[in-house]
Amino acid sequence: MCDENLKEIGNYAFYACRNLETITFNEGLEQIGAQAFSNSTKLSQPIHLPDSLKTIKYTNMSWTFGTDDFSGESLNFIYKGETYKYPEIIELIGSEE
């Protein structure tokens, strides 16, 4: 679980953490950095995003979730009680390059 006071997860924070299987985001988290979870291939689904999330950063077409050979399109996310695919969730929440 992320610290309850955490507002931002930085760029590449969990990049290539191949053994990372689950993550619980705190309510209050506002931003996930570019490629923060790229190549973290064992993340279980769906990935629950906090209602407080405002921005998911990305760099060009380098997704924040997914791998070098997998752009994350089959990932499922739950946000405000609804299920979304990736990159649809980027469009919904907002993005920043």
Secondary structure topology:
Blueprint: E1 8-9, E2 31-32, E3 37-38, E4 47-49, E5 55-57, E6 65-66, E7 76-79, E8 82-85, H1 88-93, E9 95-96
Parallel strand pairs: 1-2, 2-5, 3-6, 4-7, 5-9
Antiparallel strand pairs: 7-8
Task: Describe this entry's structure for a reader.
The chain has 97 residues and is mainly beta. Helix content is 6%, strand content 25%. The model has no long low-confidence stretch (mean pLDDT 79).
Low-confidence stretches: none
Can you list the strand order of the major beta sheet? 1-2-5-9
Helix share bin: under 10%
The amount of beta strand, in percent, is: 15-25%
In short:
The protein is mainly β.
Index terms:
globular; mainly beta; four-stranded parallel beta sheet; 97 residues
